[in-house]
Specification:
By secondary structure, this protein is mainly alpha-helical. Helix content is 60%, strand content 2%. A hairpin with a 2-residue loop joins strand 1 and strand 2. It comes from Streptomyces broussonetiae.
Length: 454
């Protein structure tokens, strides 16, 4: 077995009594809810600090209870159902969006599988459950959440919510392909799809250092997957009023908002698990403290890493403007997917050579030669293609410009020129039109008047 692979030992899961399973499930639910409440307040305070604003400072000490106040306000608001809505789907859509967001945490490890903690006198692992295909479970559950957004936009019976739901669906499809390719690189190096085994395989080196391109691809795709700024096109208030949740209010709107924030927390948990060592302590701490990865301490390291990624989401929202929809699709289909596929092929090649016991210098030589060959071939193809286009494309004459097209004066477009303006006649040849009288020759009238006055 390779040094980067970890054996799948899932025998410790599925042995807890039913009441302990319920306790752990309630803990996972409470952990998500508390993280969301904290993230909302933290987002408002951080963005206010970035933009030189005051931020929440009324509800609770330092405004820390602002999230609870928002929840109470949304629950007490009038629940409106628009007349043209499909009422059954309209009510079920927020629930369909929120439930899958909660389910992904079931396979996220908060501590090592072999390190059991005591809960009410019962020894158990710091993970609800694990599967040999846990990451496929996460991908499947994450894909189900988009149904709530699409159905919510369709069932509202309005144009803007429908467009927001369609945008959400297209965005999920575009970014999940690159995300799956980034996951596949981790599967190749860890030799497993189990989340606990993936974290165990990062004992020597975190995958953020071993697979940096996969980490960068996932960081971009997780922002697009959660529809957060600058990729918040399904809720673009500039052109869609509010997107798929425009016609929602009260507790149903709160469900959509909760699903968005929980999705943000979930994708951050996945990033911590796959690339940042999961529950493992950072490098300086783990070297001089042997007990850093035992007991309840792993949960602290996991929570700190999670909050750093949540801060990354907040930082993007307070810094970058919203992109255009065509830019969003171009980034997903023309940049992320090709880069992810090429990087996956490169990772698979390196792993194959390592399994064949090739030396590092030989692997670097083969891979470097292959990359240079592909780049040279791409350069030659682009060079001859552009040259052929230049030879086939003749310089077109600029179209004639009519400043009175349609009966109204219009400005010239790029490449068009105004027609020459006729030269004005000399001053003595102009005609002077006297208001309220007949036209008179300017030169004669003025000269005659001056002569008579003289």
């Amino acid at each position: 077995m390779s040094v980067y692979q970890a054996a799948e030992d899932l025998s410790m899961f599925g042995t807890d009594p039913w009441w302990l399973v319920v306790v752990k499930a309630v803990f996972c639910f409470a952990f998500l809810m508390l993280t969301v409440l904290f993230s909302i307040v933290w987002e408002r305070k951080v963005v206010a600090w970035m933009q030189l604003r005051i931020g929440p400072n009324r509800h609770g000490p330092w405004g820390m209870l602002q999230s609870l106040a928002d929840g109470v306000k949304l629950m007490l608001k009038e629940d409106v159902i628009v007349r043209r809505a499909d009422k059954v789907v309209y009510v079920l859509a927020p629930i369909i969006a929120a439930i899958p967001a909660f389910m992904a945490i079931a396979v996220i490890p908060f501590g090592p599988a072999g390190n059991e903690v005591s809960i009410f006198g019962q020894r158990t692992t710091m993970q609800l459950t694990d599967l040999p295909i846990a990451m496929l479970y996460i991908l499947a559950i994450g894909s189900l959440g988009v149904y709530g957004f699409v159905l919510g936009g369709w069932s509202s019976g309005s144009t803007y919510p429908l467009l927001g739901g369609i945008r959400s669906c297209a965005q999920i499809i575009s970014y999940e392909i690159a995300m799956g390719a980034a996951f596949a690189s981790v599967f190749i190096y860890s030799g497993s799809m189990s989340t606990s085994a993936i974290v165990g395989a990062q004992q020597e080196r975190w995958y953020v250092l071993l697979l940096p391109v996969s980490f960068l691809i996932y960081m971009v795709t997780m922002v697009g997957e959660s529809s957060r700024a600058p990729f918040d096109m399904p809720e673009s208030e500039g052109d869609l009023v509010g997107g798929f949740n425009t016609e929602y209010s009260s507790i149903k709107f709160a469900m959509f908002m909760l699903a968005e924030y929980i999705h943000m927390v979930t994708v951050s948990m996945i990033a911590v698990t796959l690339f940042l060592g999961g529950w493992r302590a950072p490098w300086p701490v783990s070297t001089f403290w042997e007990g850093a990865n035992h007991g309840w301490w792993p949960m602290l390291w996991f929570t700190v890493k999670l909050q750093l990624l949540v801060f990354f989401f907040i930082w993007l929202r307070g810094t970058l403007p919203r992109v255009r929809y065509d830019q969003l699709m171009k980034l997903g289909w023309k940049v992320l997917i090709p880069v992810a596929v090429v990087w996956l092929m490169l990772v698979a090649t390196v792993r194959t050579l390592r399994n064949e016991n090739y030396e590092f210098t030989d692997i670097a030589l083969y891979v470097g030669g292959g990359v240079l060959g592909v780049l040279l071939l791409s350069f030659l193809v682009d060079f001859f293609r552009d040259r052929a286009k230049e030879e086939m494309t003749a310089p077109a004459e600029p179209p004639a410009f009519d400043p009175m097209a349609g009966g109204f004066p219009v400005p010239p477009l790029p490449g068009q020129e105004l027609p020459p303006v006729p030269r004005r006649r000399p001053h003595r040849e102009r005609e002077l039109i006297v208001s309220g009288g007949p036209d008179t020759a300017s030169d004669g009238s003025l000269d005659g008047k001056e002569a008579s006055d003289g």
